[in-house]
Design a protein that fits this description.
The chain has helices at residues 43-51, 73-76, 93-103, 108-122, 137-149, 167-184, 195-201, 219-224, 229-234, 262-265; strands at 4-12, 18-27, 32-36, 58-63, 66-67, 78-81, 155-159, 187-192, 204-209, 212-217, 241-246, 251-254, 257-260, 276-281, 287-288, 294-306, 311-317, 320-326, 337-343, 348-351. The chain is α+β, with helices and mostly antiparallel strands. The radius of gyration is 25 Å and the shape is globular.
Length: 359
């Protein structure tokens, strides 16, 4: 039996706005689940329904097989870390971490031991007597995590906890959150709009759009086997390139180039004659120059971005544009003409009407 079960969960507000549609998910004990999607997709609303901070309009939420819809947050034994650190500014780090246990009337010696053990895990031992205003953003977020962690609850919920940090702090905190999860084994549900956080932290990812679940799977599943154009374009940095066209004589156009879709679909290409189709390829799946068993494309370099370990090359061919990821030593000149190859096996084709993957 799954530890947490969400069956046909819906959220409909009094004004009629339907924020979450028929959300279904089973979560095993100890899993790290990430909800990801653009702003307004329903991921935070779903998290708040799990926490008991929002009522569930329709559907069932079960903890260990028992319906929990009517239980309050405390009865659900959840701990939540918000985007804002929500620390008490008049309290020291020690008192902020200890606050929940103090309210419960836990013995002071027990509180002291737990606070110091938690601080050790989070690297906060040297900061216990400081006030929140004397801490960096990353340190304050660790205090907020510590306050949730010390309660030893079964469900750990995190709503965009890194969005207020700078890029370097986010990288550091990502690794710290992964380490905390490894050490505690807590069942964790984490909300973010950042697909890099999702890919690096999750056991499984739930991709959402407009209140609907688009796909649930491991980072590997979502990257290599996206079910539709939205997931394919959302997962990956830079995002997947898409060329939209109508199948004519078994091919679509990329500028002046003809891309023969029978190389990917074989005889099945006849099923799509005269229909819209989306041709997708990831920036890193290409090779410069001409390769065998690949689509060969000639284009003009519009812009380059040197990133150290790779270079993003922005290319154009008439009205079509795409991004390539290449070795920095192979960075081409702006306005130069280059040729690159897309292996047939690296191409994704999507139905242009439904936008679902063509297998």
């Amino acid at each position: 039996m799954s530890y947490l079960t969400l069956k046909n969960i819906n959220k409909i507000y009094p004004n009629g706005y339907h924020a979450v549609h028929n959300f279904n998910l089973e979560i095993d004990k100890g899993e790290f689940i990430v909800f990801v999607g653009p702003s307004g997709c329903g991921k935070s609303t779903t998290l708040r329904m799990i926490a008991g901070l929002e009522d569930i309009s329709n559907g069932d939420f079960l903890i260990n097989g028992k319906r929990a819809n009517e239980l309050g947050p405390r009865e659900r034994e959840v701990a939540m870390v918000f985007q804002s650190y929500a620390l008490y500014p008049q309290m020291t780090v020690y008192d902020n971490i200890a606050f929940g246990l103090t309210l419960q009337g836990v013995d002071e010696d027990v509180i002291d031991e737990k606070v110091r053990n938690t601080a050790k895990i989070l690297g906060l031992t040297d900061y216990l007597e400081r006030m929140p205003r004397a801490l960096s953003g990353g340190q304050r977020q660790r205090v907020a995590i510590g306050r949730a962690l010390i309660r030893k609850v079964g469900i750990f919920l995190m709503d965009e906890p890194l969005s207020n940090l700078d890029a370097k702090q986010r990288v550091t905190m990502r690794s710290e959150i992964a380490q905390i999860h490894h050490e505690t084994g807590a069942t964790t549900i984490y909300v973010t709009h950042d697909q890099t956080e999702a890919m690096t932290l999750a056991d499984r990812i739930v991709v959402m759009k407009d209140g609907y679940v688009q796909q649930i799977g491991t980072p590997h599943d979502l990257y290599f086997d996206p079910v539709n154009v939205f997931v394919a374009g959302f997962i990956g940095e830079p995002p997947m390139n898409f060329i939209r066209g109508t199948v004519t004589n078994g091919a679509i156009q990329f500028g002046d180039l003809t891309l023969d879709l029978s190389k990917k679909l074989g005889d099945r290409v006849k099923e799509y004659e005269g229909k819209p189709i989306v041709f997708g390829f990831r920036p890193e799946s290409i090779a410069l120059g001409e390769q065998k068993d690949a689509y060969v494309v000639a284009c003009t370099v519009e812009l380059t971005e040197m990133l150290g370990d790779n270079t993003n090359v922005y290319i154009k061919e008439q009205e079509e544009r795409a991004i390539l990821k290449v070795d920095p030593h192979d960075t081409p000149e702006v306005d130069s003409r280059i040729t690159f190859s897309i292996p047939y096996e690296s191409v994704y084709l999507f139905d242009g009407e439904t936008e679902f993957i063509i297998k």
